[in-house]
Amino acid sequence: MATNYRVKFDVAEEAVEIPAGSMLTAAAEKAGIQINQPCGGQGRCGQCAVQVTSGKVRRRSTMRLSTEDVEQGYAIACQTVVEGDLEVVVPPQEKIQQHLTTGQSAADVSVPDGYLAKQAQVIHRVPLELKPPSMEDQTSDWARLRTALLQTTSLAQVDISLPVLQKLSGVLRENNWQVTPVLYAESSLQADGSAQVIDILPGLVAPDEPLWGAAVDIGTTTVKVMVVDLISGEPKGQASEYNAQITRGEDVISRIIFSSKGTGNQTLRELVLETINELLNKASRRAKTRPEKIYHTVISGNSTMIHLLLQIPPSSIRLAPYVTVANHIPVLSALETGLNSHPEGKVTCLPGVASYVGSDITAGVLSSGLSETEKVTLFLDVGTNGEMVLGSNEWLVTCACSAGPAFEGAGVLHGMRATTGAIDEVWINSQNLESSWRVIGGGKPKGLCGSALISLLAEMLMTGVINKSGRFDFTRDTERIRKGSHGGEYVVCWEDETEIGEDIILTEVDIDNLMRAKAAIFAGFSVLGDSVGMPLKAVEQVLIGGGFGQYINVEKAVQIGLLPDMPWEKFEFLGNTSLKGAYLALLDFQNREEISRIASKMTYIELSADNRFFDAFTSAMFLPHTDMTLFPSVQISLDK
Amino acid sequence: MATNYRVKFDVAEEAVEIPAGSMLTAAAEKAGIQINQPCGGQGRCGQCAVQVTSGKVRRRSTMRLSTEDVEQGYAIACQTVVEGDLEVVVPPQEKIQQHLTTGQSAADVSVPDGYLAKQAQVIHRVPLELKPPSMEDQTSDWARLRTALLQTTSLAQVDISLPVLQKLSGVLRENNWQVTPVLYAESSLQADGSAQVIDILPGLVAPDEPLWGAAVDIGTTTVKVMVVDLISGEPKGQASEYNAQITRGEDVISRIIFSSKGTGNQTLRELVLETINELLNKASRRAKTRPEKIYHTVISGNSTMIHLLLQIPPSSIRLAPYVTVANHIPVLSALETGLNSHPEGKVTCLPGVASYVGSDITAGVLSSGLSETEKVTLFLDVGTNGEMVLGSNEWLVTCACSAGPAFEGAGVLHGMRATTGAIDEVWINSQNLESSWRVIGGGKPKGLCGSALISLLAEMLMTGVINKSGRFDFTRDTERIRKGSHGGEYVVCWEDETEIGEDIILTEVDIDNLMRAKAAIFAGFSVLGDSVGMPLKAVEQVLIGGGFGQYINVEKAVQIGLLPDMPWEKFEFLGNTSLKGAYLALLDFQNREEISRIASKMTYIELSADNRFFDAFTSAMFLPHTDMTLFPSVQISLDK
């Protein structure tokens, strides 16, 4: 006899009894509760998430839920087995949607355990009560300050910037010789190193008063800024915005071309500075401070973004043999770089590896933990380029595939960026081939963003709308499959359902572009594995970073052959690993040094010069792949 | 029987015969040649200098002649003994005057023996033929350059400035990867130190192509600039001009006061930059180069001048306890300082010791050789302040007496700076008390400059116009001594002899000011000697630097008690020791380090806090002094 459990939903009058081992969706059905299941109960969409506030369940999958979500009791109803009496909260549908689309967009960082500013920081305040000068002691102001600093710290050398010299005598005398110099040290104050006085504050500043820094991730599309209290290590304000350079080209290649014409390079610098400075203002307001109080900014970004920020001509990045002007940038001042933080504040641009493997990736490798794990790990950041790293704590190989901007919505008829009005997930009913979808921000759809394109491609394949070559099956009985001016096409939304007043469709040309992009990325995996003589199945975990990564539905990405076919639990979505890496480097100079080590340690494989890449690319120009033994789970699904 | 020698003057028809041991003036008289002797043949004025082009003479004194002059045969006729057959050129009088007034005004430097740029310089060009990047070697431009630099030199670390990064890729590619980076190294390239790439030149620059640096001496009154080829070490262009700050105050005190009002500090910075930049232009033109090609500028100046250049508020210099904001300034860039040399070029402000002992003195101590001699040496720089150093290679004590600007012509009714129209030397006929004088640039006189004031005071004392207390002897039978509105006065020039249309006079008030100034300086000597328990007569040499020093007539300066009473041969005039020190520091980093050591090593004695100073000052408020045993030679002259 099977045990029965009682399940009480908050939105239902009465509890229901169901047999142990039932799905939560079954319990909901019995209780008469509507739970959206656009994917048809396959656990793919996460739309049926509920919160189990009491009682025992077993989750078959936590796909699309964060660890935090699971800790709070969230469960995907269609993938969750009842194993005890339960109390369940059904969140309003909008709440789930919002959570799924934006909940993870802010970098989800936490202060590292045992963080101690004193040991980890390069920015330090050293409150000093100085003995005023007298006729018996006519030491200069700077020598007096310097001596006190050398006595208070273990530093071997202290220097000073001209602007601080210019304000020094006033601050000392107006504050009765009680002042708090701000130092930038090469490493910690405890070390026998050197430091520079970059500011001097009036009076004796209390040790726990916030001391400000910023982490900045310059993406080709989006710039993110996090203002951090360096004393507690806590992020206190975040902001993100489109990179204003977008108006001068959507991808790095078009920006490089723009930069090489006339004053293009200067224009692009001014545009990205405009964005960063606006975000520093916004994030500072949220942190209840001002940008002028930020003494250290750590920046990550792809190599082109870093070149453009510093007005270093990026042309050589685009032309064979594809070299950067510099991967390692010296530490600069905010004044030199044009940031509106404290003018003598320091700006660290984290080091990259190559033209298409920038510091967004090295920072990502650090924050993902890849460089410290013993597990063979594949780290992936899909944007305009697919940058990937294979390795562990002992070795790292990296490459970048010019996947093109298809997954960012460019080169696709109704593609668009993941903003309000974009469809971000599509489901196709396998019976009638009708579609349903989810729109970011609700409302009528305007187009398809990257994750929708993956979904759509997978659904079309799994429901037989297209075959493995990406060709349409015109024999199916539906108006949605038709011939258009671009060859075959599938109608996702009818004209009257959309915001744009025309059918939203996916054409064979679009499919071709998407297949090229996914084939390039998968070929990258293959070459990386090949270069170290390791099959992809030896990979023990797949870490996915980047803004795009966090919306990918793994199952669908595997179905189209974008990601390798592995058990879901091997995949982990890490959110903005680049910003998180910049944050970690901002907090602890050892992290910054570790990123330098990572950059030096990585073996870069230039795919454009590698014949293996073309072979692997050609083999991957099918859905999911010509070699179906690489995709056993997809084979099984297709067989169904 | 005395031997006879033949002396042939160029301006005489015939040679004359005179006994061995005769003076040249006697030979001239016999030949019927007029040689000016305003001082009456005492060897004080140098006006009777002639050039012995052939034959042997013995010079009793070479006062007012440079070593070079003597090498060229110049001799002061009234102090030169005929010891063989001679040929003598009598220079036109104007030529002598000009020589005496301006001949030594340019810094008279010569390249140190064995100067080797490679070993001594901090600025280096390193021509490099780089291997271009390829698909097999995708090293970044900067890493490629850096690796080549580390391989070519012994440097442990090479950094790069942002502006060079910005132009790097263009210069490399336009020049087929043949380039010449310009480095600023902490010491020599041979050392295991660090350096920064501050520019990158196209092509392979030949090793002997000039490489430019500049030495700058910022005086309160005059700024001097010397543009130097760092490869050969030779000064190639010089220029000097009044410090444009003069319009905002003649001495450091009035400038400090001006600087503390409103935007005064900024105004003074702009004014001195205007002067320096104009001089850099002018000296560069003379050196056939441009300021933008100057990669290193070494600056000396008194502490106030350095503060004002860098817009560091100098107020504390003026107020007890008289401290500077900084004596040691970090190495800056031309961009930061506002110089119009290469923006990434370095600017070294040499280190000073105290508020009134600046880097003009530390540089002077180096260039005078004081810090390397075993002789007990007194180094003196008289300007607005009398700065002095007593010591040897083992110890150094220094002090500054606020002598006031009397010897610069300020605070004296008809005082003026040593410019065209200023009387720079005065003689009084001891019989009739009539005056004669010399005017800078010839023409009618406008007033009395510092050296004239010393002359005049001494002549008045030696001829009995005034007594040891500086009071006039109204019993003398001359119209030149009279009572005026300021008490007693002596008329140097009558109204119709002057440019200004009034009598040029020296009053008792003027005399009082001058006595205070000379007493302060002499009291300084006393305290310095006292502080190391050493009488002044133990001093083995007196080195006199500064623009003012070179015009001082030692005998007259001794007569009024401004300089200690010592044999003339112990005195040496070194010209602009400050600029010369800056030049030496520009040439060789070891000199720069030595100046730092000098600055650290000097014991500074604050006179305003020293009772000994007031006692010594009071004792020195006589001409030459209350204690005549300190001035035996003056006693003898007075007894005559």
Secondary structure: elements and pairs:
2 copies of one chain form a homodimer.
Chain A: E1 4-9, E2 16-19, H1 24-30, E3 49-54, E4 57-59, H2 67-71, E5 74-76, E6 80-82, E7 86-89, H3 93-102, H4 117-120, E8 123-125, E9 128-129, H5 141-152, E10 157-160, H6 162-174, E11 178-185, E12 194-202, E13 212-218, E14 222-229, E15 235-242, H7 252-259, H8 264-286, E16 294-301, H9 303-309, H10 315-318, E17 332-333, H11 334-337, E18 346-349, H12 359-368, E19 377-382, E20 386-391, E21 396-401, E22 422-428, E23 435-439, E24 447-448, H13 450-462, E25 481-484, E26 487-493, E27 504-507, H14 508-531, E28 541-545, H15 546-549, H16 554-559, E29 571-575, H17 577-587, H18 589-601, E30 603-604, H19 611-619, H20 632-639
Can you walk me through this structure?
The structure is a homodimer of 640-residue chains. Chain A has 640 residues and is of the alpha/beta class. In chain A, 30% of the residues lie in helices and 24% in strands. Chain A has a six-stranded mixed sheet, sandwiched between helices. In chain A, strands 29-28-19-20-21-30 form a six-stranded mixed sheet, sandwiched between helices. In chain A, a hairpin with a 2-residue loop joins β25 and β26 (487-493). The model of chain A is unreliable at 96-106 (pLDDT under 50). The interface between A and B is large, with 47 and 47 residues.
